[in-house]
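Lay summary

Proteins are chains of building blocks that fold into shapes. Our project writes down both the chain and a compact code for its shape. Here are two examples, one after the other.
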Amino acid sequence: MVSLEARLERGRKFLENGDFFRILTHYDVDGVCSAGIIAAKLLEMGKRFHISFLRNADREVILEIAKDESSIILTDLGSSLVNDLRGNVLILDHHKPQGDSEDVIHINPHLFGYDGSIEATATTMAYMLASDRKYARCFLAGILGDKQYLPGKGPVGLNRRIVDMLDVAIEYEIPLFGDVADAIFYSVEPFYPGLSGRMDNIEKALKRIGISPTATVESLSEAEKIRLGSYLSLNLIKNSKIPDAGKLIVDLDFNLNGSIRYLTELIDSACRTDNQSVALAYVLGEQESFERMEVLRRDYRAQVIDELYNVLERVESLSHVQYFYTRSSYLASTVATISTIYLLDPKKVTLALHAGERVSVSARVHRSMMDLIDIGSIMRKVSSELGGSGGGHRMAAGATVPRGSEFEFVKRVNEEVKRSLSK
């Protein structure tokens, strides 16, 4: 059986032997960071490249591009097409593959005994191929961006092995940055109903617990942090259906020349507002892009907060599925994730639908159900039955189906989830 290191070595030789590379990647944090690491490595080697960001792993689009390129690199996508591609192709992916092929260089943790949904991202694969500590911040952002860590345990699998080698500080903090009032106002993970996006309520609450709204989170005393944490924890307990909601005010962060969680939020906001080039520029060393990403972060989070309040008013439920429509396809996956983690019934699959020419669906499963439901397989099966396409991980997946078939899709997903839970 071929080893991971052998595939990585083939990948390194592939980069050395080429001159110009066409890079196709997903539009999210993992896509930007994995492609960014490879692009930075190519620049260092004096190579040329052209990057495109894709919303979906559209088979026809990718194959059409690939046929005209002499050397192509796919990051955070491509494993579903491994048997359709030939020649000078490098795939760095972590989604569950449909097979393997020696006709391309296919590097995916699933092929080597690791779970790509929790133990390694595409950025992990890119970092291992580049094998250079200078890309560590991107690697860590990939972990947080793809939520590849377990509560109380942190990163696992290949991710943990690399984190331990880096000897980076793992911290558990309230994920708030900058002025206290602004930090709560723009907080979406966690989302605090009645506080997020509601400055008047925030200022009244901070006055009540004796904290200045203009103080920075970093300047708070331990006593003030405890008071703030207790108040925010009570907000989640009061407004969430998640049994341990009060504990969710604290989340994992890495400290490596600054907070990686904040960096991840910046990159994510650029990606979700279709400004992937701004995030990529920062990854490639353009420091001026940092300020632009901070503006995008505020704008994007304001949109997410508005959408979350709407979700709370219009979510619908079947026996094993809860679903809602979003006004923007860019918001669907984020709102589905946040709703599942902080707000909605953790025993039901969450579906966020956006109706365009076709209907796109983002699906999420709460961590407490991850061993019972493989939502990626369910999305792939049901969407194909209705003339669409889909797939993903056990806890997070997506699909596209013809407009008009969405309610049938929801009903069939509900039945498949019911069947999974009865096994």
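And here is the second example, written the same way.
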Amino acid sequence: MFEIISKRQNSRVGKIRLKNGEVNTPFFMPDATRGFVRSIDNEILEEIGLEAILINTYHLFLNPGMEIIKQAGDAHNFMNWPKPLLSDSGGYQVFSLIHKNPKLGKITDNEVIFRSPTDGSKHILTPEIAIQIQFDLGVDMMVCLDDPPPNDYPREKIAMAVERTISWAKRCKDEYERQIEKRKISEADRPLIFGVIQGGEYLDLRKHCTQELVKIGFDGYGFGARHIDSQGNFMEEVVRETAKFIPENALRFALGVGTPEDIVKCYGFGWDMFDCVIPTREGRHGRLFLRKGKNFTDYETININNGKYKKDFSSIDENCGCMLCKNHTKAYLHHLFSSKEMLGMRLAAIHNLKFYVDLLKGLRG
């Protein structure tokens, strides 16, 4: 299902063949966390060249709920998205919820018990349930439930999270195989499954976690928890070395990465897949990524809210062919933002996503 087409040092270009289409690697997925990319319709997402998007198991489980999605058929039908979908397990969201407010839940070796932050309803999430939900979502790629501790936790707590992650990965894989058999899914149509590598800033823990996950066997492996340290610095050595621990024939998913410069670095380390809220979130706040030339990795950011753009009738980015750059000036976009018009946020988010799509195309060569 994953074919490496070419290599240059540690980086590689490849292709993934999935039930709902092919995806060229490396690639970026916007976070359609709750089943939509905020303010952007699917036609535009396809038009700018996105080949896959990411949804979140935890959020869709809570709202609209699995009964609604199953009545629709699956997440593809519910969203009317014909291309590949990847579902995050929701572990990061659940654990972040409990780490921030222990009153909202409890983590045990068997399960996670948590309360919805919206209505207070009680829920139980196990590795098995996380996999069952993702099969019901009908996704093309799914992620094991893991234990993602904050990077500033003491080593002993991170080591415990690693062991729990390994244990849960085994349970996820067992449930995955049960669901394949139960649903009579063929090899060609089966979703890919990813294990998640934990270990914080400790390379030996990352290596141990990877080795144990490889013994279980997955289609790909993700870099778990945050890729920045408690001071906000990119953990370059840890991210680089972790990629080397992963078998070459497996996909490498840099979860939550990120900024354009971090994506370029991670691609150079051998990572194939990226997702983040940055392009759409930054766009909605008026921050745009602009290429300085034809080199996609040479860019700058501007804040269109700045008063200096009020009378700037130049194009947003002469090197971009998105609907914003083809049709409007900086002055007009500044006017939309100063007027608090949703159109401005939408156009800026579309532009940033197009920037990311072009960046990944540029890396593929």
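What can we say about the second shape? Residues 2-276 form a domain with the TIM Barrel fold (CATH 3.20.20.105).
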